[in-house]
Design a protein that fits this description.
Elements (H helix, E strand, L loop, with lengths): L4 H12 L1 H14 L2 H11 L8 H11 L18 H8 L7 E4 L4 E5 L3 E5 L4 E5 L4 E6 L2 E6 L6 H10 L7
Parallel strand pairs: 1-3, 2-4, 3-5
Antiparallel strand pairs: 5-6
Helix pairs in contact: 1-2, 1-4, 2-3
InterPro entries: ManC/GMP-like_b-helix, Mannose-6P_isomerase_type2, Nucleotide-diphossugar_trans
Protein name: MannoseP isomerase/GMP-like beta-helix domain-containing protein
Organism: Pseudolysinimonas kribbensis
């Protein structure tokens, strides 16, 4: 009988973090219905344990002999931040601007980094390096790839000020 890696990882995750799996399964059950997805995400997501899958699931599964690692020769990026996304979207060229989203007009002159947009407005970037612009209908974030990990402090401040509707 063939057991997929996903099944082994999910089973191991249930052993290591049962409450996390319960929450993810509840989210999955609500996901296909737009009427239930948003409320489920708002209710469940904030309470889920934030933990990397490699440390929490894959390594314990490997120690238990349930998962094997096969060496490979390829580039790797954890895609854990805006700098990683920018690098991947621009083909690894640091002098380019990665643009994610449809509808916006992005004008760039000697700019690099990433623009993530959900609006249709014109965004002009001139002479800025390693910039991160996240443009949504109700909020605008501008930072650099170097400081992008500090976004959590902005999220925390918005929550404290009662402005969670923009998160």
């Amino acid at each position: 009988m063939f057991i997929s890696r996903a099944d082994v990882l999910l089973e191991q995750m249930r052993i290591e973090h049962p409450a996390l799996v319960d929450g993810l399964e509840e989210l999955a059950a609500a996901w296909d219905d737009p009427a239930t997805r948003g409320p489920a995400v708002d209710r469940i997501w904030p309470g889920l344990e934030k933990i990397a899958i490699d440390y929490s699931v894959a390594e314990p599964a490997a120690r238990a002999g349930r998962l094997a690692v096969i060496p490979g020769d390829f580039d790797w990026d954890d895609v854990g931040d805006f700098a990683s996304i920018s690098k991947l979207r621009s083909g690894g060229r640091s002098n380019e601007l990665a643009i994610i989203g449809d509808g916006a007009t992005v004008l760039s002159d000697h700019a690099s980094g990433i623009v993530v947009t959900q609006s249709k407005r014109v965004i002009s970037l001139i002479g800025v390096r390693d910039i991160v612009v996240v443009d949504t209908p109700d909020a605008l974030l501008v930072t650099t790839t170097e400081h992008a990990q500090r976004v959590k402090s902005v999220v925390d401040a918005l929550k404290l000020s009662g402005r969670s509707e923009v998160l």
